[in-house]
Amino acid sequence: MQICAFFQTNARMFSLLLILSLCIDTIYSLECIYCYAGRFKFGESFRIPTDQCQTHITARECGIYFLLHYDNQTYEVTFGEGSLWTTVIHIKDGPYLTYGFSYRCSTGNDCASTYSQSALDEMIHRDYDAKLLYEELEMLIENSTRNGSIHCYDFGDTMVSCSSDQVCLLGYDDQEKSTIPRGCKVAVGARISVYDIRSRLTVDIECTRNLCNDYSTLLQITTILNKNNLTNIDVLQVSAGRKYITTSSTFVTLALVLLLAVSIN
Prior knowledge:
The radius of gyration is 25 Å and the shape is elongated. The strands form four sheets. A nine-stranded antiparallel beta sheet has the order 2-5-4-7-6-12-13-10-11. It has a two-stranded antiparallel sheet with strand order 1-3. Helix content is 31%, strand content 33%. α1 packs antiparallel against α6 (249-264) and α4 runs antiparallel to α5 (215-227). With 265 residues, it is of the alpha+beta class. The two termini are 22 Å apart. The protein has a domain at 129-234: Ribbon (CD59). Residues 1-29 form the signal peptide. The chain crosses the membrane at residues 244-264.
């Protein structure tokens, strides 16, 4: 009898829970395109190749990832789920400059392709000059006449010797406000990488000059990146042309509040 009374008393609450669960499933069950759409030239609008992009996945958010090659004026497009929100910049000799950024949304199955064109156009119109940018950075990170080992800083500003197949490494974590890792790394050539993953930004510097992985070099490099509208030196946030479309959080919050009020009454 007590069990029946319990269910009768709480039937209304259980019904609301069921309705809320169905609403959340409906809101978050998107059928997202999952494919590599190809490479396109700057100024050319991307299109979804229907013969290649037949696969769909169920996800809460749909996403699209753009990889722009400023050195050859092309970009690549990949569709998928929107779980990973990231911006990646790579700069190295060649010169090469790639800028990858993602866009996610939850307003509909085709929202990623519908709303991301303006963000792509904004990034293309920046028209970064890979050659001029690397010329500014080269004197800080590259020793073209290197022959053999080099000296680098390790933890605690300790000077160490790195072998001929290694470079100096300096990693900066903006969230931790720390220059870790630091030391030697097996790699070929100098390179600068900037990562912004869910608003956690890191900068990795791989350089081939003696003692090039110091804080002074980090400041000079980020100053150059900032001047070229790649980062903001004050907070070291990547200035990508991204947007996040919020759709359902307000509805879910309101539903939970109403449910709580009903259960209390």
